[in-house]
Specification:
- Helix content is about 70%, strand content about 0%.
- The protein is mostly helical and about 325 residues long.
- α5 packs antiparallel against α11 (about 265-290).
- It is globular and about 50 Å long.
- It starts with a helix and ends with a helix.
Length: about 325
């Protein structure tokens, strides 16, 4: 399978991100508004990108001869942009809503370039490029929960979580479209490992749910994201060692969910922090536990500082960006 075929495959998979977002919206006008924004932003982004190429300004991030590669990345950016605020975006007036959507899209483009900078300049222990997205989105969700509460009821209806389990397994894998192996057959082995990690953490998450005999909305989504993100920094480690730890990460994730729920967090806030911020913190430090010292990119204390800087950089920039969004919040 060549690079273009791989990008076509992930173009199809990435569409599930947008479907997943639209499926959660109950009101028709909101879905139509969101589809219009996504279409407009994708088209404008493509025109802008092609214009830069004509002027000789290129980046390895966007340098692809396949339109499928561009659409995949755009789908990923649109999903992240919407998930940053979710239905809070509809509490804004029309012109502010479009401005904030553009701002979020540009922010996530900036995250892409930030990833490239860290990967090529500082050399961090993150071989899949997933972690910065999880850190930034987790920081957005945390700040959103702290400073921008829903005006409506915080409760979320339980959807067809079991039905969505199958395609949810593939959502984390879509991030690997940015990975350095996607033109190689070993890429598919890494995708398979990522799926296994996600499913095993989901098992741990669901074990606690069964024991507590509670119904948790979107438990498949949260359970799968935990393992897929947390252990993405340790791909290549012996799978027999990783699987028990992945199950434990799901168990602790479920316990953290119960704790935050007792603090009256909203359902979107719980889902975002458990799915993204919690596993990204694990992913920062897991290489110290699972990687052989001869595979570390730096000396131990230097690596600790680099990994911490890696986390704080995206976390603080995401919080700063959310502060800018709050300035445009409808009074």
């Amino acid at each position: 399978m060549n690079l273009v075929e791989t990008e076509f495959l992930f173009c199809i998979l990435s569409s599930f991100f947008l479907f997943h977002s639209l499926a959660k919206i109950s009101e028709e006008w909101k879905r139509k508004d969101l589809l219009f924004q996504w279409t407009a932003i994708t088209a404008l982004g493509f025109i802008f990108t092609e214009s830069l190429k004509k002027w000789g300004i290129q980046s390895v991030i966007w340098n692809t001869d396949s339109i499928f590669g561009y659409i995949t990345k755009s789908n990923l950016l649109l999903f992240l942009s919407y998930t940053s605020l979710e239905e809070r975006i509809f509490t804004l007036k029309i012109y502010r809503r479009f401005f904030v959507s553009i701002f979020l899209y540009v922010f996530w483009v900036g995250v892409l370039f930030g990833i490239q900078f860290f990967q090529t300049t500082i050399l961090v222990q993150d071989n899949t490029l997933i972690l910065p997205f999880a850190i930034s989105l987790g920081a957005f969700v945390w700040a959103r929960e702290m400073f921008w509460n829903f005006e409506e009821n915080k409760e979320s209806k339980l959807g067809d979580d079991s039905f969505r389990f199958i395609y949810l397994c593939f959502l984390p894998a879509t991030f690997l479209v940015l990975s350095p192996w996607k033109a190689d057959w070993s890429f598919y082995k890494q995708v398979a490992n990522l799926l296994i990690y996600g499913i095993s953490s989901h098992v741990g998450f669901q074990l606690v749910t069964k024991f507590k005999k509670e119904i948790v909305p979107a438990e498949s989504e949260m359970g799968i994201w935990i393992g897929a993100i947390a252990f993405s920094t340790c791909l290549g480690t012996e799978i027999v060692v990783v699987l028990p730890l992945s199950i434990l990460s799901g168990i602790f994730g479920r316990l953290l969910y119960s704790y935050l729920s007792s603090l009256s967090w909203s359902e979107p806030g719980l889902r975002g922090v458990i799915s993204f911020l919690y596993p990204s913190v694990l992913g920062i430090f897991l290489p110290f536990l699972l990687e052989e010292p001869n595979g570390w990119l730096h000396a131990p204390y230097v690596l600790l500082g680099v990994q911490t800087l890696y986390f704080l950089s995206f976390y603080l920039v995401a919080c700063l960006s959310f502060g800018i969004i709050l300035l445009n919040k409808q009074k």
